Structure formats: C-alpha cells, structure tokens
Amino acid sequence: MAKKEKIQKETKQKDKNKHYLLASHTKRWIKATLMFLTAIIILLSFLDKAGAAGKLFVKASTFLVGNALFLLPLFLILGGFIFLKTKKKGKNLSTFLAIIVLLVGVAGILGARDLTLMQGGWIGFLLGKMLAGSFGLLVANMVFSVIILIGLFIFLQFIFLEIMQEKEEAKKAGLEMKSSDAPNFRIKGVEPEKTEPQKSAPKMSLFKKENPPASTKKLVPLTTMSAINKGKYSLPPIELLSKNETAPTSGNIKENSLIIKKTLENFGIPVEMAEVNVGPTVTQYAFKPAEGVKLSKITTLSNNLALALAAHPIRIEAPIPGKSLVGIEVPNKVRATVVLRNLIADHNYQNADSPLYIALGKDVSGAPMYTALEDQPHLLVAGATGTGKTIFLNSLIMSLLYKSTPEMLRLIMVDPKRVEFQNYNDIPHLLCPVINDAAKTINALQWLAREMERRFEVFSEIPTRNIKSYNTNKSVIAAGSQLPYIVLIVDELADLMAAKGKELEAGIVRLAQMARATGIHLVLATQRPSVEVITGLIKANISSRISFQVASQIDSRTVLDTSGAEKLIGLGDMLFLSSKSSKITRVQGPYVSENEVKRVTDWVTDMGNKVEEPQSVLIESLKNSLEQVQQEKSEGGETFFGDDDPLFNDVKRIVLETKKASASFLQRRLRIGYSRAARLIDMLEDKGIVGAADGAKPREVYGDNAGAKLANIEGGGLDESEEVPKEEGWQKV
Fold first, then answer.
1. What total number of domains does the chain contain?
2. Which conformational region is residue 338 in: left (phi greater than 0), alpha (psi within -120 to 50 degrees), or beta?
3. 379 with 435, same domain?
4. How far apart are CA 562 and CA 385, in angstroms?
5. 327 has which bridge partners?
6. All residues at 6 or more sequence positions from 605 whose CB lies less than 8 Å from its CB, including other chains
7. What does the pLDDT look like over 19-35, one tens digit per residue?
8. Which residues lie closer than 8 Å to 519 by C-beta, 6 or more apart?
9. Which pTM does this prediction carry?
10. Which residue has the higher pLDDT, 197 or 109?
11. What is the domain extent for residue 393?
12. Which residues are annotated as a binding site?
C-alpha cells in the first residue's frame, strides 16, 4: 500500500510538472473551429460542392442514418459553441457521444414512422422495426424521444453547469462579504457634541496630562451672558460662538475594510483588521500585519489602495503611535464641520490652568486636541493658499481670548496683508495697533529682545527661573507686579522676509532661543514654505510646527522634515508636530466664521472700555515703551541690533585698553563673526572712539586708560580675567 501511494504521488507530481505547449483556451478555440469547419463541409456536400469525397460521405451517412444526416451540421455547430463557452474539462467525449445519441434518436423516429421508405437509414430501420414491432409505434416514438432528450441534456449540461457555478460563486462571495470574511473590528464614530461641559465625554489631550474625571475635580463653569460681573473684566460668553456642528459620513465601512484586506493579500501581505476610527475628515482603518511583514512594503502600496478604494488621497500611518497597528486614512464621503464652541466648552479646556491653552481641533478618532503654547513654546504654521491657515490663527487667538484677561496676556499682531487682523485692532489685549510693515516688525522684535533681557534681570533679583515661578511668588503677588505673557503673531512671514530677511531672522532666532522662560512666545505663519522663508536657523529653534496642505513633498519636508502634508485634503486638515513628541498627529482644525470673530472682538472691546479697574503701571510702561520704539524710523541699512548691540560696551573697553581696532582682532577676542565685528568697528567710528580707515594702516584709537575705565564702569564690561561667552547662534547672522 505504501508503494502504491508513493507511485500515485509521483505520478501526480509529474503531471504537475508537465509543461504544455498550448494553453487551455487555445485548445478550446481550435476544437470549436474544427467543429464549425466540419459542419460547413457537410453543408457543402449536400449542395454537391464538396467533390467526390463529399458525395461519398453523403451516400455512406445516408445509408446509415437516412434523413437524420441533415441535422448533423446543426449538432456540430452546437458542439462548437460548447467548446467556446465552457471551461469544464472532459467535454470532448461527452460532446461526440451527445451528437451520436441525437442522430440515433432522430433516425429511430424517422425509421419507425414508415419501415418501407427507409427514412432513418439502416440504423433507423432496425431500431424502429424492433421497437415498433414489439411495443407498437407509440411506445417506439416515446423511447426515441427520450433518447433525443438525453442527447440534448448531455449537450446543454456544460452550459447549465457553467451558469450555476457562476451564480454559486457570486452568492458565496456575497455571503463572505456579509459574514465570514468580513473583518471583526470596533467602530468609533464622531457625533456632534453638546456645549455643556458637564455632559461632554472626557477626552484626553495627547500633549497635556489627562485631567482628573469630572467626579473628582470641580469643573470651572462657563462664562455666560448672565454671569458677567459689572466693573470687572470677564471672559467672553460661550453664546457668542456658533454651535452648528455636523456629523461625518464615512461610507460603507465593512466593504472598505474588506477591500483593504483583499488588496493587501493580493500583494502577499496578510493582515488582520483591528478597529476603525471615524474622524471629522477621514476614517482610519487600523489593522495588524502578520509577523515578518516589513512596514515599507505596506507604505509603498498607497496608490494601489487608493485605486481599489476609489478614494484620493489616502495616507498610511505606520505604525500608529502607541499601538502595534498600521492605519490607513481614507477621506470621508461627507466631512464634518468642527466648531470652536464645542472645543472651548469641553472640560479639558475649561479646567486647564495655562493662560495660553489653545484648541487645535479634533484628531482622526474624533477626540478634541489641545496644547499649551508655553510648552511648545513657539509655533510655525505653513500651508498653501486657501487651506485654512488664517482661520486657524483666528481660532488660536479666540482660544487665547477665552482663556486670558488683558492683565494675563498681551498680543502683538503683524498683518502684512492689512486685512486679516483688522477686527482685533481695538481689543484691550493688544500692546500696539496691528503692524503692517517690515520696519515696524523689526522695531517690535528689538523691543521684545530688550523686554526679554529686562525680565531676565528681574528674575535674577527674586531669584526665579521662569515667568510661572515669578508670578506665583508671594512677594510679587503682594506687590501686584506680575508679568503678562506676550505672544507675537505673524500672519505672513514671506513678505517680511523678502523685505527684511536678515534682520527678521536674527530677531526671531534670538527670541526663539531665549524668550521661553520670560513668557514671550512666537506664532509665525506663511503660505510659501520655502527654504528662503523657513530658514535652517528658524526651523532649528522652532520645533513645534503645523502644516496644512502643501503643493509638493518637498514643501512638506521643508516644514515637517517628512512627507505627508501633500496628501492632506485642505479646509483645515493639518499635521501637527509637537516639541513634546516626534510623532506627527493629523488634526481637523475648527472653523471660525468672520461673524464669530466680529462678535467676540466687539464684546471684548466693549468689556475693556466698560471696565473701570485701573491698569497696572507695568502694563502701561510696556505699552508706552513699545509705542515709543514704533515711532522711531528704521533706516534701510540698520541691523537688528542697531546701537543696542549687547557687546558694544565690551568692544569699546577692549579697544581703549589695547589701542587696537580691527575686525579680525575683535573676531579673535570676542569669538564673533566678521560681519558683526565690522559693524562694531563702524559703530566705534561713528561714536568718535576710533579714526577712519587709512588703507593698510591700523586705525587710530582716541582716548586713554581713564576713558577705558570710565567705559568699563558705565557699560558694566568684562574684566580681563573673565572669559567671554561663546557666540550664540543668533550672533552669527
């Protein structure tokens, strides 16, 4: 038995290894063609146009089956069609058997009708005589009719079996889609939220620690129209914002999941569907690939999946942060509108202690997203025109207005377009009117740099490390000298960089490096994410970035250092890269209409005018000093530092003491760049401390040691024994 089984296995293996010269469909076409050719030759033989061989064939066939021969071409054509239409094996013998059975049945009926005429040939005569003579003509006709039906059934069985098989396969496929092969997963949906914070489901911010549940922490009530205190500044009421939020339509989730699974399996990637997250803009289908599958194989199939799903564009997140799953984000059939009111009404926003807590929007699972600006601590926003940057800036400003009073927060807004921030011109939070030109922007950055230095000096007297510790100090609270946060918001950075690129970059980099602890934060936006606008120094010092839809993968890499932003679908759809995490999060930003902005700004302006509480001396001094700086005229060739270069007094002391004045000397002594050293020499010349350049001769130095000591005392310069600090990145500009 074992030998027999072994021989059978070897025979099967040999059959598998056979290489046939002709494909199966080619063989079927050849057989059908031969059948049709035979039928045509027989028809020509009836017309005496097939030569001597045709005549001989007709005589011999008529001798055998009589007039039944005239049906033979019809049976041959039917057999040819069966060869063409069916793929079932083993039909050669059955087809020829059916033709013979049909000829015999027809010949028998013709022969039994009249035995003397021999209409059924000798076969019909013999069969008819035997059956009709024994059982009568009726029984003989019944028997021959059954024989004809058997022949037809043999013929048509192939066609019927083919049709039935196709129906069964279609039915099985439908059942598989509905039950057996349909992936088993959890579906998380997004529903329009209510505005009451007590009824909203607790959500978790990815960039902030989770707040305790509502049962363990007392919720801060929302400000409403009826809760406004007279004579004291109150935060804007929630009724000023719209609450028309719609629900998304994701399409057939189970069908899409099955398509994703089948498509990946076609490329040799077995997966197990895990869960589906229905977000406001996209639906994320999460699955777990089999062990040993490279994620790079999945990410390269994005175009194939988009073709199979008839959806564009799709984004693959491999892996999903915090999960051992891969996510495919497919655009929804109908997008949901995320409104700011629901995000502000959420208890996470209401209970946040940060005065710079901003609502980003909702992620792909529909959970609200928030972040504190002081934790970022600066933000770079980029995206193509019409993708939602300005609306996002409006929602960011509204989040700040709903969280902070003018005593807690001050804003400086830069709007080169002159139309985006005009609604905010009269709000009490502004330190100065909205800035529209590059020269005043440079002045504002210079003032912020001086204010940063002043705050560091104030912190050193307490001493404290940052603004939060300073404002919570008991002596500071008793004196009423808390410092407000200052946020600089620039709507279009590209226009400013084109006009004052070097000076603007130097100021931004200096503030981005050092201003975090002093409560000064930057929010920069641009619609042209190129390396000329978003320079390497700016990117290196602003690690938190938001990218809306961009034109190309190169622009996406310029903003986020990775691709993906080119696959967004616009209208507030964005990617958020936080300084707290290296993973990018997809967020749908909230929509804020112009009417909402107008209502809130009008209310805030009226509240600021009605409040009789006197502003602090510190706030007044900040506003006066900034206004004074803004009134100064900026010369075309002025640098960012101007006459206030922090090294000027040290340079003056060193030159007076050493009697040497050259750019290369200052480079070696202070470890600074040539451009800055040359500017310092020019400043000394303007002040009359050194003489003019005279070819290759050294400059003449005026003054003596007494003047040097006086300069040292007045400027607070460094002693010879002190080590000069290394140059910071902003000093190289």
1. 4
2. beta
3. yes
4. 20
5. 286, 317
6. 426, 427, 428
7. 445 666 677 788 888 88
8. 374, 455, 466, 467, 483, 484, 485, 486
9. 0.62
10. 109
11. 356-610
12. 383-390
